[in-house]
Amino acid sequence: MSMIINTTGLVIYSRIQGEADRSIDILSPEYGAINISVHGGMKITGSNAAATQLFAYSKFCIKIQKGRYYLDSSKVIRIFYELRNDMKKYTLACYLADICRYTGTANQTAYDVSRLMLNSLHFLCKEDADCDLIKSIFELRFMADTGYIPNVIGCNECFKYDGDDMFLLLKTGQVFCSAHFDGEENDYNVRVSPVLLHTIRFIVLCDLKRVFNFRISENVQKQLSPIAERYFLEHIPDKNFPCLDFYHTL
Ligand SMILES: [Zn+2]
């Protein structure tokens, strides 16, 4: 018994398997992150060759047999070529792809995460792309969309919304005003200015369509980067991301 499914998806991993086959992972809105075997993957030419390369966004016709996925045919929609000319952009894209691979379970829908990933690559391909901002947006929004949305509306005690600096607790995702914060200020209990808190709120709460439509100063970005990364790593089970380590050396 076999079954055929059609889906669009982004290739987030591609490797050679055996002598002539290839194994790819795609991120599909309907099926999440799934692994597909491509027979003759090394020798394939034309449409399938382009459509199954890393960071190709393609239409896939997939045969499911005994719970495994096999490529039947594919057709490329877009290839994010621009990533290959820039080491920093490419490394960041690989890190984001690894996040989708390690955390996306097969056969779970991933509409928001797919859209977030595609939009991230789209903005990353722009000439004036701000890699650090795209990275922070992805890390925070990914967590928000997968059930770890920080409670940044207001102080956890008195609901104070703005005014002075507040404190964001990365381990719990809670915010406290200075009157109600009784912990120690450190890497995980961070002081956030009103503009920084507003930025974090926007990233986790706005319509996904608009999440990349803003700019922040270099100073705010310097504060946002470690917060987004620590919050992400704190709440993700697999914390080993070699591409992230490499990104920091660039
Ligand atoms: Zn308070």
Structure, described:
It is a single chain. The protein has helices at 47-51, 87-103, 111-124, 131-145, 194-205, 218-235, 242-249, and strands at 2-17, 21-28, 32-38, 56-65, 68-79, 166-169, 174-177, 189-192. The chain is of the alpha+beta class and 250 residues long. The chain folds into two domains: 2-79, OB fold (Dihydrolipoamide Acetyltransferase, E2P), CATH 2.40.50; 101-249, de novo design (two linked rop proteins) (Up-down Bundle), CATH 1.20.1440.120. A five-stranded mixed β-barrel has the order 1-2-3-5-4. A three-stranded antiparallel beta sheet has the order 7-6-8. Strand 6 and strand 7 form a beta hairpin. Helix 2 (87-103) packs antiparallel against helix 7 (242-249), helix 3 runs antiparallel to helix 4 and helix 4 (131-145) packs across helix 5. The mean pLDDT is 91.
Overall mean pLDDT: 91
Topology, number of strands: 8
Molecules bound to protein:
zinc ion
Largest sheet entry:
5 strands, mixed, barrel
Low-confidence stretches: none
Secondary-structure element series: EEEHEEHHHEEEHHH
Write the layout of secondary structure elements.
Layout: E1 2-17, E2 21-28, E3 32-38, H1 47-51, E4 56-65, E5 68-79, H2 87-103, H3 111-124, H4 131-145, E6 166-169, E7 174-177, E8 189-192, H5 194-205, H6 218-235, H7 242-249
Parallel strand pairs: 3-5
Antiparallel strand pairs: 1-2, 1-4, 2-3, 4-5, 6-7, 6-8
This protein binds zinc ion.
